[in-house]
Amino acid sequence: MKKTVVVLSLIAASALIADEAQIKSEIESTKAEIAKLNENIKRLESQLPKPRYELNARMELGYILNSGNSDSEAFNVDTKIKNRFDNHSLELSLLYQYSEQDGIESRNRFLSELLYEYALSERLSINYLLGYKDDKFSGYNYQIYTGPGTKYKVLKTKTQELSLDGSILYAYDDIEDTYTLGGVPVSYPYPAGSVSQNDGYTNSYAAYRAQLLYSAQIKENMKFNQTLSYRSEFSDADNYFVYSKSALSLKISDIFSAGVNYYVDYINKPAFGKTSTDRIFSFSLIADY
């Protein structure tokens, strides 16, 4: 009797193991079928005709408030709006960064670019750029640059894109007045007392800009973007500017993402009393429409 019970128990256990293995096999098979169906959906969607009109907007908002031994406040807004119609597109980029320490302003930067683009093919396009930069602590009242360019998509896959953009520009720089106290450069806020003023000046010149744009879909909900640009005067190679933005974003809903950004703004010939490199590390809430 005991032998019969043991045998029956072994048979039942074997059946359960076999059923579990079969269920696991069916689960894996179903997952493979779902993945194949998703690939087919993406392939079919890519074959659909593109809409004649498309509007996309992206806004990044970051804010930091600190109180204690020192009071500080900082925020940044980074916005991009792109309007596409047929082979034409118009893109507006706006960046504003502000901070203050113990009630004294320490950063006030505004950067705007308007880019018109016409697609000649899936990879090649021509464009026209208009840029304006106003940075209170850079030594420039403002900078303007404008001119035509060409953009080429070097790499375009399901997960990565790499584009190179080159422009021939007319540039205009308005350099601010400088102040010294006893021969030493004085920064804002200017101290009370005898401060000597040296009048600023303007500089207009022919220039060029080379830009790299890279994006990588690391995971389904995680994306990395890199923008790197180099703008220089033709007749004076030492007069150049480098801008970089490295961004990592994590999708948390259909509209919102959390982002980490690292900005580098470099001026090779900084204004009198200014440093060459400005770096900003920020956390942002991102909304895509």
How do the strands line up in the largest sheet? 1-2-3-4-5-6-7-11-12-13-14-15
Gross geometry: globular
What is the class of the largest domain in the CATH system?
Mainly Beta
Radius of gyration: 28 Å
* Terminal Cα span: 73 Å
* Major sheet details: 12 strands, antiparallel, barrel
Average residue pLDDT? 87
- Tell me the series of helices and strands, N- to C-terminal: HEEEEEEEEEEEEEEE
Helix content: 10-25%
Looking at CATH, which topology of the largest domain would you report? Porin
InterPro entries: DUF481 (IPR007433)
Pfam families: DUF481
Signal peptide: 1-18
Coiled coil: 20-47
Describe the structure.
The protein is α+β, with helices and mostly antiparallel strands and 289 residues long. The protein contains 1 helix and 15 strands; from the N terminus they run αβββββββββββββββ. The strands form 2 sheets. A 12-stranded antiparallel beta barrel has the order 1-2-3-4-5-6-7-11-12-13-14-15. The chain has a 3-stranded antiparallel sheet with strand order 9-8-10, with no helix packed on it. The radius of gyration is 28 Å and the shape is globular. The termini are far apart. The model has no long low-confidence stretch (mean pLDDT 87).
Helices and strands, with pairings:
Layout: H1 2-47, E1 53-66, E2 72-85, E3 88-101, E4 104-119, E5 124-135, E6 140-156, E7 160-175, E8 178-181, E9 184-185, E10 196-198, E11 201-219, E12 222-233, E13 240-251, E14 256-267, E15 277-288
Summarize the structure.
This protein has 289 residues and is α+β, with helices and mostly antiparallel strands. The chain has one helix spanning 2-47, and strands at residues 53-66, 72-85, 88-101, 104-119, 124-135, 140-156, 160-175, 178-181, 184-185, 196-198, 201-219, 222-233, 240-251, 256-267, 277-288. It has a twelve-stranded antiparallel barrel with strand order 1-2-3-4-5-6-7-11-12-13-14-15. A three-stranded antiparallel beta sheet has the order 9-8-10, with no helix packed on it.
